[in-house]
Amino acid sequence: MTVPNLDASKLEPASVERILIDFNLFIINSVHHLNKFVGMCEVKLAENHEKLGRLRALVANLEKKLSSIPDSSLVYQAPIQSIDPVQLQSIPLPVGTIPLPPPLPQQPQINQQQQQQIEQPIEQPKDDDPYPLVFEKKYKLLYSLLKVGVHEENVKQKGRTFGLDEDDVIEFIRQFRSKFQGKKAPTHPLDEQQQEQDKQKDDEEEEEDDDEEEEEEN
């Protein structure tokens, strides 16, 4: 219930003694409940400990009884008779029973020689050229740069500008150095083809010029 028009500033404050009494009562009640809870936990733990002790005694008694029983391998077991699937198919089934599927055909036995032929790996064709990247078309310009003595770092930079993979360029340089170690690199095969084509073109142009000169003289 609220009192209307009540000015709290005019009320007298609670005394310190009253506050201390309430605080002490709160602590006493809290400690009482905690002690009660701890006592209940100790009782439960004692009961569980007693139950575990009884279980240990029962397990020990059962182990002692089991040790007195002879080995299970000495107990007679009736042999399990194998049923031929063909004979099983001939047995009449009750109405509404789904029949068993027919037996799978036996796979032919493979002798040792056939097994070795199957397991023998297929020989892959061997590439005789240990330096396959040297005369590859996309490295033609890099080949020409290395041939005239351009530094490897500049060749790598040129390869990056062409969009080539840096690891592939490094491998190309390694193969180039290994293939032409201590020797002068020959002309690239594509350059030779281009030179032959240019030579044929020049010869054809010279023949055409000669024909034109002869026609003019005539």
TrEMBL record:
Residues 107-123 have a biased composition (Low complexity). One of its GO terms (cellular component) is WASH complex. Residues 101-130, 180-218 are annotated as: Disordered. Pfam families: CCDC53. Residues 203-218 have a biased composition (Acidic residues). Belongs to the CCDC53 family. This is WASH complex subunit CCDC53. It comes from Streblomastix strix.
